[in-house]
Amino acid sequence: MVKAASVQILADENVIVPKLSELIIGAVSFGILVAFFFWKIYPQIRRVYAERTERVEGGMARADEAQREAQELLVEYRQQLDSARADANRVREEAREQGRAITEELRAAALAEVAGIKARAEEQLAADRAQAVASLRRDVGELAIELASRVIGQELESNERQRRLVDDFLATLDSSPDSAAATTSGVN
Questions:
Q1: CA distances from 5 to 2, 8, 163, 181 (A)
Q2: If we measure between CA atoms, which residue out of 128, 134, 175, 136 comes closest to residue 144?
Q3: What is the pTM of this model?
Q4: Per-residue model confidence (pLDDT) at position 73
């Protein structure tokens, strides 16, 4: 009997189907919860979502603006770099031309100096040659007079006469072809 009564109590209580009072309390509680959600929580969620959307879109707009500015700066820097390269090439070319001009000036100055040195050397050589010829004439004249004195056996008295005699002798030596070749080959 106790078993039959407990089976009867269990049969009256169906776990799957709730009691009407519990169903009404649950529906009202759920409605209050949904109303509270839409009244307090949903506006805050929408506001936070709008702020976040604004931040993301603003960040993207700022990033686009920064990228555009970066592109403009890149173009400007490239133009400045091209200008600097052109200036560097111009300066290099000017330096090369100045170097060439300086080299030409130095070369011209060196050639002028060489020409001056050569002219002075030729003048010195001509002076040395004239001095050597004068010294040679004097020595040859003295030797000729000494030789003539020995041959003749008397001394030639006059210096003027000696000088004329030496000059005549040398003039005959200069006019003869054999002695001229010997004189020039010996002097040079």
A1: 5, 5, 187, 173
A2: 136
A3: 0.38
A4: 93
The conformational region for residue 82 under phi > 0 = left, psi -120 to 50 = alpha, else beta, is alpha
Rounded Cα distance, 9 and 22, in Å: 19
Distance between CA atoms of residues 92 and 100, nearest Å: 12
Contact 156, 165 (CB under 8 A): yes
Measure the N-to-C terminal CA separation of the chain; round to a whole number of Å. 169
Mean pLDDT computed over 48-75: 91
Residue written as tokens 């010996």?
A: 186
Under the banding of pLDDT at 50, 70 and 90, the label for residue 45 is very high
Residue 44: what pLDDT? 93
